[in-house]
Amino acid sequence: xxxxxxxxxxxxxxxxxxxxxxxxxxxxxxxxxxxxxxxxxxxxxxxxxxxxxxxxxxxxxxxxxxxxxxxxxxxxxxxxxxxxxxxxxxxxxxxxxxxxxxxxxxxxxxxxxxxxxxxxxxxxxxxxxxxxxxxxxxxxxxxxxxxxxxxxxxxxxxxxxxxxxxxxxxxxxxxxxxxx
Length: 180
Hints:
About 60% of the residues lie in helices and about 10% in strands. By secondary structure, the protein is an alpha+beta fold. It folds into two domains: about 1-105, Ribonuclease III domain (Ribonuclease iii, N-terminal Endonuclease Domain, Chain A, Orthogonal Bundle); about 115-180, Double Stranded RNA Binding Domain.
């Protein structure tokens, strides 16, 4: 159900943005859609509609996990199966618009540093790679990633997971590139 909800929600948001923001470039539409259907956004949306009151699991499992975002996707999938696409679209957009400021997200700064760096690499014909330096073990509690541009180190980042460490490395690399 979660898989179906993810796909339906992506289509609903893409359709909405395409029709409501006709002047925005494709890259910005994609970035905005990604923000609206991200795990973080869906977790927040689930909390704002108090979905946790309807999810049966230990309270400690809800903290710091994607369970609520997954449940939100499953809910959108169930609405689609029960009522069809048009009703799912209407209900989903109403829920999202009541609890998120779509226009603020559209106008906001893109904090996906890794995507921005990869786009920069493509535009400038540079090879951008991320290398995991360290994974958590008994002594180390964080991930460390290094960003390489044309086989030269441009930044090292740390984070609670691989994705966050790569984001931090990309942020440092972008900052370094902006100074040069």
